[in-house]
């Protein structure tokens, strides 16, 4: 087990060099930046590549990207399982990056070599759709990219946080700063992708547009592997899911046994738990007491070599409790993604109908309006880290300023206002269309500036700076130490479900608001004749209900309690033991 120190020979004496810390950040961020460049640069404009280069029908192209997006959002569960079970974060990230690299090379080759895509359309001639062989290359490339993302996404953020030893007083405030800057760096990469890479793809060529992120990914792999001597690696200790199942089975098998009067009578085995308690041992909590029965010792149990399907330690029981307690907070984040997802659908459609000219010759692409979301998110994140934390610290006494639960709550409130404001902007847009007699003309540009949409885009960016980063902090901090990659996968799963719920909500609204004369809140062809503002306010109402739900969950939430072993600056031996909540 790598405990964060490296033995070195110096002048005949054995010394120890501390691993991890800020020195590892350039290597880790390099991997994340290029992964985001590749993913976002690929997704932001891929519908154009599939329809204009491979000549796919629009519906087929949309379904292809939907399937790819769904797969990419689920593979982090597989990557997290592999990482936490046997491979470890470093090896999982490395192998996943190589798999992703192969997928990107394959896709880039299909854009460069003429024989790997259909011939260009000529005049009004019917375009030739890509052949089965050409589509096979596309699908294999997408699958490899999805698998690669599944290994990188849940592991890289947790691996970066692992570089800061929470038991070291000199590093205990570094983790939350890392999450702020992780999201800031990720946002910067996304900003470059939706501007520079999309421009290159549209105006220079797809070979360069896909080749640049492919080359960047190759460089990032070399850089990430090059930082290996500096990394603090926490080795995996078997499948965490198996441990959780064992606790559940043991509790069920002992369900009829009376509860013990005192928690000190529950089974403890520090030697058995040594490999999964490096960051501190979880202490007994009073919630979910039915699970405590898994730690009750009976005459049939052998405490020296226990059958873990019958007897679990308190630490292992508390691992399962921690995961269960996190569930309601995890679920509350889904609807925020549902609201955020509208930027790529209906907000984009609004932008297409509005005046987007900055000058007579330059027009803002509708898809580039997300730049305002990203810029606001970056500005808010930097302001929060440099200013707001210092101000809040004076009132709360917390090093991180406010708890991640408070931070998430602020994000929920801002997101609620984002969709609320969007409804009024849509009313203004339609009012101008009506005044100019353009309600019936969906293809005509309405003489209203697209900058009316900036408030809703910016509010979503501000909400993400609070909610999404707070969500990441929550998952990493409250998950058992041996399940941090799995916790990051839960974060990506909430994003996946948020998008799926958006699809379901749009489908239901489209179906049940259909009138006898063809009217609809969300019409297929002419947004001017719809009631998009009602849809925005429906999402606002759902977010308000979700906010109430979150406040109840946050009020009832019990932070995990750990027995922290602090280390001295010049020794790896424990010199102080502190019982602490992880919120401090």
From TrEMBL:
UniProtKB keywords: Membrane, Transmembrane, Transmembrane helix
Keyword Transmembrane helix found: yes
Major location category of this protein: membrane
GO cellular component terms, semicolon-separated: plasma membrane
UniProt feature coiled coil, ranges: none
Membrane topology: Multi-pass membrane protein
PANTHER family linked: OLIGOPEPTIDE TRANSPORTER-RELATED
Name of this chain's protein: Peptide/nitrate transporter
Species annotation: Medicago truncatula (Barrel medic)
